[in-house]
Amino acid sequence: MKAAVLHQYDESLTREEFVRYEDVDDPKIVRPTDVIVRIGGAGVCRTDLHVVEGIWRFKVDVALPYIMGHENAGWVEEVGRGVESVKVGDPVICHPLVTSGHCLACRRGDDMHATDSRFPGINANGGYAQYLLTGERSLIQLPKSLAPKDVAPYTDAGLTAYRAAKKASRHLLPGQFAVVIGAGGLGHIGIQVLNALCAAEIIVVDRSDVALQLAKDCGAHHTVKGDGHEVERVLELTGGNGAEAVIDFVGEGDAIAKGLAMTRNAGFYYIVGYGGKIELPTIDMITSEKTIVGNLVGTYPELVELMALADRGLVHLSTREYRLSEANQALKDLHHGQVKGRAVLIP
């Protein structure tokens, strides 16, 4: 099969070629619950750029060369002898983790913390290819209204945004405020999820005018340009106290300090983006009683819930399509901020 393969890390992201488009062996069924999916769409994520940079080599055990791509959807191509819930030809979206289902975390539905798992595109071959090896337990059948190429990024970008927005929606009340920092690939989904799940006023902060327009299109009630004065503007919009919930989809640079400054006392700061550090004096944590919440992808049931919202037309993905052979261009466009929403590779 054809695949876009990562052969070496590039810490500066300056090489002309991040991945190599080439022929590789087709994946093979090994376990009775294995499923091979013919890829209809593979999302291109900022995490993929972090993989290219080599950041993830200190977190996971993976040997180069390997195939990135952890946001995948397509059609069932082949199934193991023990597979019963899907059949060849079924359109499916893949939960990003492949788990056995036997550990306690799995039995509690905490897929992200399973002790027996693999993460295609992170620590195993992923979906920047014509075919993907996954597991039956990871697959959700798609309704007729949703095509694989249009929903692939929901498996990480959408699911992560949904999980954070769902947590926030549980305590947000009418008349309260939610701030979304970053209206890109994840943020534009988070805005729509907040609108679908709660009645809080949504303030979106971004440096890009294109992203702010996308935020308005997705239902943001207020937009604030990230020009160095965003904290003051958010405080003004919230009556001087800050927001009850801040969801930070950036998580690096000065976004963290500003996000915490936008969070009112006893409020919640949800960190989704990564690359930076949270540095806060303990006395400030005590006197403000702010809660800092980490977010790691999401559960299988949460992906089912997100597909239900998409099926009803309550959440839409803004995507830009590239051929699989154009993987380098997609990665470079993402790196240089030239992708509105999410990039999707199509074999």
From TrEMBL:
<dbReference type="InterPro" id="IPR036291">
    <property type="entry name" value="NAD(P)-bd_dom_sf"/>
</dbReference>
<dbReference type="GO" id="GO:0008270">
    <property type="term" value="F:zinc ion binding"/>
</dbReference>
<keyword id="KW-0862">Zinc</keyword>
<dbReference type="InterPro" id="IPR020843">
    <property type="entry name" value="ER"/>
</dbReference>
<dbReference type="InterPro" id="IPR002328">
    <property type="entry name" value="ADH_Zn_CS"/>
</dbReference>
<keyword id="KW-0479">Metal-binding</keyword>
<dbReference type="InterPro" id="IPR011032">
    <property type="entry name" value="GroES-like_sf"/>
</dbReference>
<comment type="similarity">
    <text>Belongs to the zinc-containing alcohol dehydrogenase family.</text>
</comment>
<dbReference type="GO" id="GO:0004022">
    <property type="term" value="F:alcohol dehydrogenase (NAD+) activity"/>
</dbReference>
<dbReference type="InterPro" id="IPR013154">
    <property type="entry name" value="ADH-like_N"/>
</dbReference>
<keyword id="KW-0560">Oxidoreductase</keyword>
<dbReference type="Pfam" id="PF08240">
    <property type="entry name" value="ADH_N"/>
</dbReference>
<dbReference type="Pfam" id="PF00107">
    <property type="entry name" value="ADH_zinc_N"/>
</dbReference>
<feature type="domain" description="Enoyl reductase (ER)">
    <location>
        <begin position="11"/>
        <end position="345"/>
    </location>
</feature>
<protein>
    <recommendedName>
        <fullName>alcohol dehydrogenase</fullName>
        <ecNumber>1.1.1.1</ecNumber>
    </recommendedName>
</protein>
<dbReference type="InterPro" id="IPR013149">
    <property type="entry name" value="ADH-like_C"/>
</dbReference>
